[in-house]
């Protein structure tokens, strides 16, 4: 994805075996789809590594220094293309950004505990009982 006009994905590395059956999809992708993909994405460095007797993997290297590995064992050429488009469209930042479920953000949890409707019910009952006793 381009952020501020600069593509975040710098390099794409394909690692596969020439003979293993689990690398069939990536071999098809490299022979059929990769040349057109290279032509459409000249800003990206593309490397192809062959390793004997290893399952195929896809590595995306980002400008932030982060590397996202994806296992593409027994995947078809179309599924590998989907993974590549996902790598290309992500920013490459760490996954420690979490969505909070609470609306209240605090570094220190409440000492009093959670509020509920019946939190002050006993205090209100005592005060009402005293008010009734004074009124009689």
Automatic annotation (TrEMBL):
Residues 18-91 form the Ribosomal protein/NADH dehydrogenase domain. It is found in: Mitochondrion. The keyword Transmembrane helix does not apply. InterPro entries: Ribosomal_mL43 (IPR039927), Ribosomal_mL43/mS25/NADH_DH (IPR007741), Thioredoxin-like_sf (IPR036249). It holds the Pfam family L51_S25_CI-B8. GO terms for molecular function: structural constituent of ribosome. It comes from the Eukaryota. Keywords: Mitochondrion, Ribonucleoprotein, Ribosomal protein. GO terms for biological process: mitochondrial translation. One of its GO terms (cellular component) is mitochondrial large ribosomal subunit. Gene3D superfamilies: Glutaredoxin. Belongs to the mitochondrion-specific ribosomal protein mL43 family. PANTHER family: 39S RIBOSOMAL PROTEIN L43, LARGE RIBOSOMAL SUBUNIT PROTEIN ML43. This is Large ribosomal subunit protein mL43. It comes from Chlamydomonas eustigma. The lineage of its organism: Eukaryota, Viridiplantae, Chlorophyta, core chlorophytes, Chlorophyceae.
């Amino acid at each position: 994805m381009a952020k501020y006009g600069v593509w975040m994905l710098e390099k794409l590395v394909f690692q596969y075996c020439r003979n293993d059956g689990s690398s069939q999809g990536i071999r098809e992708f490299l022979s059929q789809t990769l040349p057109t993909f290279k032509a459409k994405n000249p800003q990206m460095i593309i490397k192809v590594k062959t390793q004997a007797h290893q399952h195929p993997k896809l590595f995306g290297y980002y400008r932030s220094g982060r590397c996202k590995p994806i296992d593409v064992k027994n995947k078809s050429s179309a599924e590998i293309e989907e993974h590549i488009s996902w790598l290309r469209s992500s920013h490459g930042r760490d996954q420690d950004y979490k969505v909070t479920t609470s609306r209240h953000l605090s570094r220190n949890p409440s000492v009093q505990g959670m509020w509920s409707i019946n939190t002050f019910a006993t205090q209100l009952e005592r005060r009402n009982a005293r008010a009734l006793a004074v009124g009689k």
